[in-house]
Amino acid sequence: MGVPDLSCHQNGSKIVFTTRSADVCHSMDAADEVLNSHHQITEFAETVAIECKGLPLALITVGRAMSNRRTPEEWRYAINTLQSHPSEFADMESSVFRVLRFSYDSLGDDKHKNCFLYCSLFPEDHMIRKDEVIDLWIAEGILHNYGLNDTRDAGEFIIRSLKHACLLEKVGDSDDYVKMHDVLRDMALWLASVKENKIFVFENQESIKKHGIATWKEAERISLWGRSVKLFSETPFCPRLLTFVVRQTSVDTFPSPFFQSMHAMKVLDLSKNIFLTRLPPMLEMTNLQYLNLSDTDIEELPIVASSLTKLRFLLLDGTRKLKAIPEGVISSLSSLHVFSRVPTKNRDLYFYSFWNTTLLRELECLEDLQEIGVTLFTVNAVFQFKSSPKLRGCVKRLVIKGNQGEELHSPNTSSSVLSTGCFNILHDLYINNCLIKDLACLRYATRLRFVFAEKCPLLVEIIANEFSSSSEAPNMFKHLKQLNFRDLPLLKSICRVMYFPSLETIHVDNCPSLKKLPLDVFNENNSRISILGDKEWWDKLEMGEFKFKSFLSLYAISSTILFQQSSTFQRRIGGCFRLSKLYI
Hints:
29% of the residues lie in helices and 13% in strands. The chain is of the alpha/beta class. Among the domains are: 32-94, no CATH class; 107-187, Orthogonal Bundle (Arc Repressor Mutant, subunit A), CATH 1.10.10; 342-436, no CATH class; 441-584, no CATH class. The chain has a 15-stranded parallel beta sheet, sandwiched between helices. Strands 1-3-2 form a three-stranded antiparallel beta sheet. The longest helix has 17 residues, at 148-164.
């Protein structure tokens, strides 16, 4: 006996039917309750629900399929299938993926579709950095190269289109990252297999062994993640492979012939493999356009890297054990668009001593160079950089690190590189241990996002009022997200009070002379700003005509104050200033 339509008003009638199939019974809502049939099933059901990630369509489909499963073995098998091969789960392909595919099919062109499928290379719940994945799309050729900035704009347009189609999600309040819903990612991997555009993603050594390296011969994209991935005992045959990502693994080296069949490969990402010390031969990688070795322990870039004449992206950030790049390698990379080697951690600053004028000259001679990240340690490197309008015009991340006893540690040397010049694409600036008095150059850095200044004993102001009051002011800091100041005993001023539409954080540590912040507190666009500093500094901070600091102290109950949750606070200052956090 069953009630076929629970949404209808009950009239006391029931249907009696006879069947040999339990599936027919549960589809007629006549199945018995299964959650209490075994003490483990409730726990298993919660795991299954988690795998559906809140997607109603998946929850309904999986729930229907499991409504007559009463043994732990069946539920364990279902969980394993959902985690490893979700497209093989009962009705998942027909009832979920084919329905969700409508959004994919509605994208219109193959460019959008391929960009969506590419995002499935990243693991579940991974925060995908937008500028990173756009560069990968460019390197593999999904986005045609119309000039780096124009092509990146096209990538931003595609990401917004995928978000509008609900195929990508925003990550919190950040506009820098996106993520894929796990079920949509499963659908993308299924679509890739249907289209014979094979994408393999392995997150542990066991899954690699289970499927076997022999299956890689049809793959176009492969990604390996996770510390359990340690070594490769076989040499794969991958003639179709375009993208190979090996990230955050325990791999320390590759067998010499490992890449010998990968002639078509355009993207090789070996970043964040902290045990990787040596690269395999690279002679076969004649079509390689993207090489990312960031946050590895490689000690040298082999001289044969000079044969990578199609390489457009070379990323070496965080390679603190890399002692040198052989002379002539960089200048041989005639197609290079992007080069970067800056520290990713503060402690790594002390290992970046190989920057010299020869390397800077080699970068300068590259005709297609459009973007660099550089670290300057010596006076010769500073003046070489200063004398090159090309290098200044294409620097995206700039680190200037002085050392005690070095000639760089003098006011004239340090300030000369930053006092004049055009920094059109500068995003990140880090100044450490320099006798510099101001950062007036920042008025030319209209794309600036992050400023870090520490241990600069003569730094008095960031931008003088006469500069920040000019006609350039409205566009000066419209992209700025973070200001970080530490151990700056003479710092008194950042700039005049002005508009910061993107500012998220001001962090002040041991800057006793800084008594004012340049916040236009009655501008409603300054809506989510976190101020981090010690209580002694906060107590001495001058807020001018805005008398609300003493009121804030009433809320200093814990280390974090969430002002936007306090209607009393908003009413006291007129409801316009919505500062979100104050760390004391």
